[in-house]
Specification:
Blueprint lengths: L2 H10 L1 H29 L8 H26 L4 H25 L3 H25 L9 H29 L4 H19 L18 H6 L1 H13 L2 H31 L4 H33 L1 H20 L4 H29 L2 H29 L7 H24 L1
Length: about 425
């Protein structure tokens, strides 16, 4: 069946559409909230932003939950996932409103970060739960297409949310609090959308659910060890996770680079820099959408690891060619290409993990997947902070990223031959 035909079948599946609606609203809210944080930290007129400051903000927001992420996965394999979406999004709506109050009150940065940290903490549960739930609403034959449509549509929704946030911020100065409240409203809508699905639809199966929190926490350490052992016995999943983590590192380093270029090298005012960053985010989002269209065909043509190798190899060549001039147009083209290749690898990785990991372990493995994403991104920001000058122009960093992309491609080609 053609990709278009598969998409039509998926969209006729009631529960798939309902799960997709939860994802779109939730990730649209994520985009709004994340851009509100970025503009408050990076583009506030009173702040002199540096690569080190950006790296510090990312570390504060992401690293603590890289430590507890695996435990979130163990809980996901015991809590009903529909309830995670309901209560998780309600909690995020409340916490986001608290963030808006803190922005208006001009509190110290540490208190602002603590509030933002609380919202991102709940995000660990929701995103891992969305990926773990997908095989419960589609059949195995269309899982690749579902992985192309659903997470990529979520990424596009986050991009749209970011666009909404950029628009509000550009129209009204000092509107960060209003943008955060918009995100809170979208979180609330996502929570309400989850009520359209039966409570037990998304699993895990009742015989593995432990509804009591105390029982779930008591078995966390044992469950984590079991999840790691289960993952270690599945080399394709390990290989895919290693590759997607390296690609995420590269994407993180380039994200900080573009942030600094937009803030200082390509603009003379905060509003101009913000508009350029919004354009870069939109172009990268278009690349994510292109990956959703191309990946099912490409995976059928090259195989899962073959498509991942093509993505990594293409990124290595084009990132180096387009990045070294540090000019706006080539780097915007690079943003599209890297959005496509990064999302293409993620689609393939999602499919490998979902098809090789048992349902009883899927929640904790996707939580580990999420942790790898965070650690790779923060590590990239730290490396960028050491290598980037204030204006964001660093040829050694561009070369390093190209070498990592090429190494990832070689790793995937070798793994494909060994497999």
């Amino acid at each position: 069946m053609s990709v278009v035909g598969d998409l039509r079948v998926l969209l006729r599946l009631t529960n798939f559409r309902r799960l997709l609606a939860v994802r779109l609203l939730s990730q649209c809210a994520d985009g709004v909230y994340q851009v509100a944080l970025a503009t408050y930290v990076v583009f506030s007129p009173e702040k002199q932003t540096s690569p080190a400051a950006i790296a510090s903000a990312m570390a504060v927001l992401l690293l603590p939950y890289s430590l507890v992420g695996p435990f979130a996965g163990v809980l996901l394999d015991r809590w009903q996932r529909r309830q995670v979406f309901l209560y998780g999004n309600l909690l995020r709506a409340l916490l986001a409103c608290g963030t808006a109050v803190l922005i208006l009150a001009s509190v110290p940065d540490w208190l602002f970060y603590a509030s933002a940290l609380s919202v991102t903490a709940v995000n660990r549960f929701v995103l891992a739960g969305l990926s773990a739930s997908l095989p419960r609403v589609v059949d195995a034959d269309r899982l690749v297409v579902a992985n192309s449509l659903s997470p990529t549509a979520g990424t596009v929704a986050a991009t749209v949310g970011g666009g909404l946030a950029f628009g509000v911020r550009l129209i009204a100065e000092d509107s960060d609090a209003a943008v955060v409240v918009l995100g809170a409203l979208l979180y609330l809508c996502s929570a309400l959308a989850s009520l359209r699905m039966p409570r037990e639809l998304l699993g895990p199966d009742p015989d593995v659910v432990q509804p009591r929190l105390r029982a779930a926490l008591a078995s966390t350490a044992h469950g984590l060890v079991g999840g790691l052992r289960h993952l270690a016995e599945r080399p394709p999943a390990v290989r895919a996770l290693a590759a997607v983590s390296l690609m995420r590192f590269c994407y993180g380093a380039l994200t900080v680079t573009v942030l600094m270029l937009c803030r200082y090298a390509w603009s003379s005012t905060e509003s101009e820099g913000l508009a350029l960053l919004g354009l870069a985010v939109a172009v990268s989002g278009a690349g994510f959408f292109a990956a959703a269209v191309l990946s099912p065909w490409a995976i059928g043509r090259f195989g899962v690891f073959g498509w991942m190798a093509v993505c990594a190899g293409s990124a290595a060549v084009l990132e180096l060619t387009l990045g070294l001039p540090f000019a706006q147009t080539p780097l915007l083209i690079a943003a599209f290409v890297l959005g496509l290749t990064t999302q293409g690898v993620k689609i393939a990785t999602d499919t490998v993990v979902q098809t090789s990991v048992d349902d009883a372990y899927r929640g904790r493995v996707f939580a580990l997947y999420d942790v790898l994403f965070n650690v790779a991104f923060v590590s990239a920001a730290a490396v960028a902070a050491l290598m980037l000058p204030p204006d964001g122009r660093s040829a050694p960093l561009i070369v390093l990223v190209a070498v990592l992309y090429a190494s990832t491609a070689l790793l995937l080609v070798r793994g494909r031959k060994e497999g």
